[in-house]
Amino acid sequence: MAYLSRAKKDNVVYAELFFDPQCHKQRGVSFETMADGILAAVDDAYHELDIKCKLIPCFLRHLSEASAMDMWSEIFKYFQQHPEERDKIIGIGLDSDEQDNPPSKFHGVFWKIRHASKSVVGDLHIVTHAGEEGPSNFISQALDVLRSERKDHGVQCLSDDKLVQRLREKRIPLTVCPLSNVKLGVFDTLKQHNLKRMLDLGLKERQHSLRRSSLLWWIHYAELSRSN
């Protein structure tokens, strides 16, 4: 609710929130408890702030695919037991450290997600963090192996002209988070960021708001706009 209240101040009317259920499962918190709590805040924000929000639980790529499979079983069970919440969880994502953790590592679990019964899970979208710290071929893997519909980050695509052409022609969206890229050392400063070049090349981009409480930093679109 605190994040959505802050987003409202920047005139956000719709948000898609990532969260990492495996972090909390390690502390003994069930997916049902997590989802119920977050969705209660989402409902409060809709009624009190007139802001709409959907959820995208993500797998942590530094953990094993077996761990992701186990998490997916809990998510699927939640869909079975709470069909009324199905339209509020709109996708499954993949995030965390790209180093030595290619998208192909999670081929099996995303195959299972893609083939899950639509009568239970609805039309779940697949989105992946790729091509921030990892190489451009991680973006291609996410497209071809996981069948990801949207790339979060994707700034490394400019090292591969054929990939840029594919992203442009297929209108595959990229959600770019410049402050994350600077904090992780992908770029030294915001002025060095390649966002403008990506836009000039006709890529379909959205600037993205990201908060990482463990690193105690965040950025909002309005703040990024004021920095330029």
UniProtKB/TrEMBL annotation:
Keywords: Hydrolase, Metal-binding, Purine salvage, Zinc
BP GO annotations: adenine catabolic process; hypoxanthine salvage; purine ribonucleoside salvage
Main enzyme class: hydrolase
Chain ranges of the Adenosine deaminase domain: 3-202
Residues spanning the membrane: none
Pathways per UniProt: Purine metabolism; purine nucleoside salvage
InterPro entries per record: A_deaminase_dom, Ado/ade_deaminase, Metal_Hydrolase
SUPFAM superfamilies reported in the protein's UniProt record: Metallo-dependent hydrolases
GO cellular component annotations of the record: cytosol
One Pfam family matching this protein: A_deaminase
Enzyme nomenclature, EC number: 3.5.4.4
Cofactor: Zn(2+)
Listed GO MF terms: adenine deaminase activity; metal ion binding
Top-rank taxon: Eukaryota
PANTHER family assigned to the protein according to its UniProt record, in alphabetical order: ADENINE DEAMINASE (PTHR43114)
Name of the molecule in the record: Adenosine deaminase
Organism: Skeletonema marinoi
